[in-house]
Design brief:
By secondary structure, the protein is mainly β. It is built from two helices and nine strands; from the N terminus they run E-E-E-E-H-E-E-E-H-E-E. Helices cover about 15% and strands about 40% of the residues. The longest helix has 13 residues, at about 60-70.
């Protein structure tokens, strides 16, 4: 199909593509980023590593770039393990591409995005994490490389509560 036929209808549902990366070590911990106090979103809360996919990038290139920008880590094998559609409104959403990797080296390099910290998987609920992580991280932690990627969706109910489902 030629480029001229790639028409975007502004009245259709549209998504912003993002990557989210979780690194696990051999001590049953996940590496999270504590958002800096100056961030507009998720300030002082723990989130995965990642961000927006830039023009011209595929999801792996974006994940590798975000991993480097936020941690200084290069040349780490990442496994695509999930895709979650996040409904923000009736017209706009986020297409979240989730990766996992194994990493057990120190020291870690924090960035302007925030400070890196290892969190024990069995203690996640004791930390100020971004709300969807409590549903996503346990699934990503046990995902096997030979398995198909998980497919999920999340939406906010009338009371503002987030509901996440996976196939």
């Amino acid at each position: 199909m030629p480029k001229s036929d790639q028409i975007i209808d502004q009245n259709r549902y549209q998504v912003v593509p993002r990557t989210l990366i979780f690194l696990f070590d051999n001590h049953n911990r996940v590496l999270l980023l504590k958002g800096s106090s100056t961030k507009k979103l998720w300030a002082r809360r723990l989130n995965g590593i990642g961000g927006h996919i830039e023009a011209g990038e595929d999801i792996f290139e974006s994940a590798q770039r975000e991993l480097y920008e936020e941690t200084g880590i290069v040349d780490l094998t990442l496994q695509f393990c999930a895709q979650v559609m996040v409904d923000v409104s009736e017209k706009v959403g986020v297409a979240l591409f989730i990766f996992r990797g194994e990493f057990d080296k120190e020291p870690l390099v924090s960035s302007k995005e925030g400070a890196l910290t290892w969190v024990a998987l069995d203690q996640l609920s004791e930390f100020p994490v971004v709300e969807d992580l409590l549903a996503i991280i346990p699934r990503v932690a046990v995902h096997q490389s030979a398995s198909s990627p998980m497919i999920g969706k999340s939406k906010y109910g009338p009371d503002g509560e987030l509901k996440i489902t996976f196939r």
